[in-house]
Structures are given as C-alpha cells and as structure tokens.
UniProtKB/TrEMBL annotation:
GO terms for molecular function: arginase activity; manganese ion binding. GO terms for cellular component: cytosol; nucleus. This is Arginase. The keyword Hydrolase applies. InterPro entries: RmlC-like_jellyroll, Ureohydrolase, Ureohydrolase_dom_sf. Belongs to the arginase family. Keywords: Hydrolase, Manganese, Metal-binding. It holds the Pfam family Arginase.
Amino acid sequence: MACPAPIHLLRFPQWQGSDAHAHLAGGRAAAAIVESVLQPSSVSAVPIFEAENSCDPGVDAKGQSQCVRHLEAITRQARVARAQLDELPPSARVFTCGGDCGVEVVPVARASRLWPGLAVVWFDAHADLNTPASSPSGHFHGMPVRTLLGDGPPELLQLLPSRLEPSQLIYVGARSLDPPEQDYVDSHAVTLLSAEPASSLPDRLSAALRKGRFGAAYVHVDLDVLDPSSFPHAVARALAELLLPRPDPPPPAPMSLSPPAWPAHYRPIAHEPFGDGGQATLDTLARYVEADQPVVLTGADIVDVERWSDNAKVEALLGDKAEASLSFGEFLAEAERLAAGDSAERLYLQETMSGHPELAEEFRSWNWPFLLQNSNRHRWGLPDSNELFIGMQGAETDAHYDERHNLFFQATDT
C-alpha cells in the first residue's frame, strides 16, 4: 500500500502586498488553527520584515507606473519561502496559509516545476492579473498571477523556478476585474467559471479539468470569493451578484420591548463546569443555546485569565498606544484617583483588540478548536472581533441589544 504524501504547512502571514496589517495577525491566528486541524508532517514560518512604502503610484518617463509597494520586503520574504520549500522532498504537498495573495507565487511556481502543465484553480473574487504598469494601486496582492505568467517585478521573477501559461488557469467566482485584467482574460481565452449555480459548480469544474487534460492541480482560495453578506471578514471584499445569491429575507416581525424592569420569570444565570472542553461541555452549552438561555461556564481554559487579571501584564500587552483619549496606564491612574476620592464618577474601558499585531501570540494561545466547534454547531458564523472590557467597581453600561453572539471570559471580579 502506498504511503500518503507528506504535507508541509507554510505559515506566511504577509501583509505588505495589500497594505492591510490585518493579514499579519489574522494570518498567524489562522495558521495556528490550520496546524491544529491539518496535523502536517512539517511546518515552516516565513519571517515578516519591516517595510516602508518605498514608492507612490505615478508614471515613469514613458507614461507607465512601475510602482510596487513594499517590494523589497515582499522580495526578501519570497526568497526565504523559496529556500524553505527547496529543502522539502519533491513528494511533499505544500499547504500555504497567508497572508495576502502575494504569498502564492513561490508555492505555485514550485508546484508547476514538479508537475509541469498542472492546473491552477484560483477561487478569488479578483483575477490578480495586474502588472506593475497596469496596477492602479501598486499593491502586489493584485499581481501574483501575472507574475507567475512572467510579467511581474524582475526581482520576484528571478526567484521563480517556472512560469505558467494562460491555458493552465481556471478562475472560480472572479467578478471584480480591472479593465487591463479583463483584456488579458479575453485575449488569452482564460477559463472563467461562475459560482452560480453553486449546485453545478463541482461538475463544471471537473469538466474544465478534464477538458484541459490536467494531471494535477494547485488550488488557491481567497476568502473574498465568499458572499460578503455571509462572510464580511475578507480584507478586499467584492460584490456578490454571481456568487451564491440568496432570496430577499422576509420583513422582520414587529418587536415588542420589555418594560424597564426585570421580567417576572427572571432567575439567576446558571453556572456549569467547563470540564475538559470535550463533548460533554459542547452538549451542555448546546442545551442552553437551544433554550435561548445564558450560562456561565466556570473554570474554562479558553483564555489564560491569569494573564488578563494582572494589570501590569495587560499594560505590557497593549503597550503605550492610546487610540482613544487615554492609554491603559492613564486609565488605571485615573480610575485609582476616582476610587480614592468621593466622586461618583466611574470609568469604563472598551478597547477592540482586532488590528493589534502585537497581540498575535496572545490570540494563538486561545482554545480556538472549542470556539470554532461551537460556532459551527450553532451556525453563529466565524468569530469576527475580540474586545477588552474593564470597568471600575460600580460602573454600568446602558441596557442595549447586541446583534452578534457573544462569549465573555471574566478575568477577575475584584
């Protein structure tokens, strides 16, 4: 019996191709989840270098723009990725977890060298077919496919061991093409598959692969291919006229607001032990969710609450940045001043932790399998934000309704 090919996970949270730092923290968190689920034979991580915006979109003496933002850092990272993949045996299958779409140039080129003439199936709302001259933004995440075809920045082309032909491309769900990209698709008869209707997509994709007589395929998935009304978390979202359309929802039923007093049937919120976080815990939580009742799971190990109950450690995590009117240190000092006096004023801190690359390692330490299992089981959708709430004793927020499902982790009650 043949042994399965080893799987190598390439962790590559590049952000410079899109100029969106969310790709850094999000890519690292996603790679941690993928690693726990995929259980790869080996793993390597591409270091992400500091980058300055070394150019601005403009035109050269010939009237063409040649700007690729952060090209030096992107090239250095691609060089490291090439060195890491060159150390793998030819039988290794590479699973790349980004990052922006620019991370694909080295893995796809490797696959093309090992399996000449393979199909490249590109699930993406965008074609990524711009050149440095045609790109309106200078962002490399719109250029990786054209680079693989041999029309990219020379600094990257010299790192690629092979080139693609237009006949190897199969796009799925592409619906936001710049005019130069559309011209290239039309002039080279590139295969475009609509995602509509979804029920026939597997058959249509299989037919395209058979027509091309492909013996192997590399599959790229950009999450912006999903309908943004059901998955709004992609960095570069595109309208979804062709992708998984849904009928208009029925009008909402009239709302009846409760009086500003506790309902007569109010009773204390139930407490249940978290246990080992296994099936018994999932079933316990499901029982309360299905009954639309809140529950406190005691002793959970999803987040390291000890780290978040130590003010000094929280301040070290958040740093000195003040995105509102106070930094965390200033908030603590003001809260202590108010608590020591006779003032009835109370401070309450609410800080989003999304978009903070310095918290990536903290997020990786969380029990994501438990969170995702619950989200999938109850159709909550993927977690889309993390927030920190800190209030002085006696601080209260106005009663309000949250549209999203919340999981709260209480670090301390003192």
